[in-house]
Amino acid sequence: MTLIKSISGIRGTIGGKTGENLTPVDAVKFAAAYGSWLKKQLQKENVKVIIGRDARISGEMIQNLVSSTLTGLGIDVIDLGLSTTPTVEIAVPLEKADGGIILTASHNPKQWNALKLLNNKGEFLSGNDGKEILKIAESEDFSFAEVDNLGNVTINDSYIDIHIDEVLNLDLVDAKKIKAAKFKVVVDGVNSTGGIAIPKLLKELGVEVVELYCDPTGHFPHNPEPLKEHLTDICELVVKEKAHLGIVVDPDVDRLAFISNDGEMFGEEYTLVACADYVLGKTKGNTVSNMSSSRALRDITEKHGGNYEASAVGEVNVVTLMKKNNAVIGGEGNGGIIYPESHYGRDSLVGVALFLTHLAEKGIFVKELRDSYPSYFMSKKKIELTPQLDVDAILKTMEEKYANENISTVDGVKIDFPENWVHLRKSNTEPIIRIYTEAKSQQEANGLADKFITEIGKIAGL
């Protein structure tokens, strides 16, 4: 069982011992640290925080603990109940709140949960703010409110509908064209809140919906990470139903994957590529993704006359670079779409609406759309090291060995070769090096990864 404290929040498995897992005590402690940090930063009365959760079995318990802790600090809470990560993110500025907490462990299995923390813009906290909250949690320097100054809880379960309205009002979302296309779509909501939000959005867009695992019980019917090996059921159902496509989201609805009309994966990496192709065709500008994302986004951006840049891995890093470079769209290769015209957060609802508008305008099948993009293949592997080994020194050696190539050390070591690339990063939580590669065939990508695993093994003496 596990408890991981990081600058972006706290996540862990439910049950077990305090400090080793995400127990009620740990949830209270971290919520108190976040609330105390907000009060210290703001130095004002009437602090307000938005809370929402995915459909995990532990969600209601954790939400009650977090909500009661914040009101115990004298903070007012707006409780969205069952929600999505992007829904909470848009609710924070709309409600003029001072922050937000999303209760979700994203793509992790059902025994996990987490507290993800937002600022008053509805964006993930900076690294420095996260570190400050961790310090407060460690010191347990909390001062709770007296009885006459306790916070209040307001229930507002309308925000998924508000979120959908916000999406429909985006200039580049054309509901009339989508309706005219008469799409039939299968949706896998992994029995979480995507099973509420995505079918509702599609029906507003005039799409015929076939629901698969859309009952928000929190009992995930398969591994909730939207990867090919977990999605056999929807791939088969798309073909059986003669649907135009399938839509898959993770439990908190910030990762989006499509299934082509032939039952094959469109490719998580290509979710962002397709949406960017559409947006850049309407709005000239730049794009950003993280260093472990496909080169295809660069190719599409340059085709439209824009500039592509890569950030360190992590949504907050992508958003920071997007703002710096005035990117009109960006995100992560795991199916995360960030569209600033809506908000600076990964949003599957926005991604679905942009993708369907693009498809309706093109008037082609999903497989044809995928075939129109540059074809790259990725390999994602890791090499386990003993805790005694100096991972930074190993990466430095690799950097020096390939000094004549196009290298970035913003986040580990990324080596861009003319025809392919490799990205080496150390894990923050275990003694491993993650090895991501991309090439023009799966065999080449796998071979490149194996080559670097062998080289690192020799350096490490393994």
Automatic annotation (TrEMBL):
EC number: 5.4.2.10
Protein name: Phosphoglucosamine mutase
Pfam families: PGM_PMM_I, PGM_PMM_II, PGM_PMM_III, PGM_PMM_IV
Domain (Alpha-D-phosphohexomutase alpha/beta/alpha) ranges: 8-142, 172-263, 270-374
Enzyme class (EC, first level): isomerase
MF annotations from Gene Ontology: phosphoglucosamine mutase activity
Keyword Ribosomal protein carried by entry: no
Keyword Magnesium assigned: yes
Organism the protein comes from: Galbibacter pacificus
Cofactors, names only: Mg(2+)
Domain Alpha-D-phosphohexomutase C-terminal per the UniProt entry, residue ranges: 396-453
Record's keyword terms, sorted: Isomerase, Magnesium, Metal-binding, Phosphoprotein
Cross-referenced NCBIfam families: Arch_GlmM
InterPro entries: A-D-PHexomutase_a/b/a-I, A-D-PHexomutase_a/b/a-I/II/III, A-D-PHexomutase_a/b/a-II, A-D-PHexomutase_a/b/a-III, A-D-PHexomutase_C, A-D-PHexomutase_C_sf, A-D-PHexomutase_CS, Alpha-D-phosphohexomutase_SF
Family: Belongs to the phosphohexose mutase family.
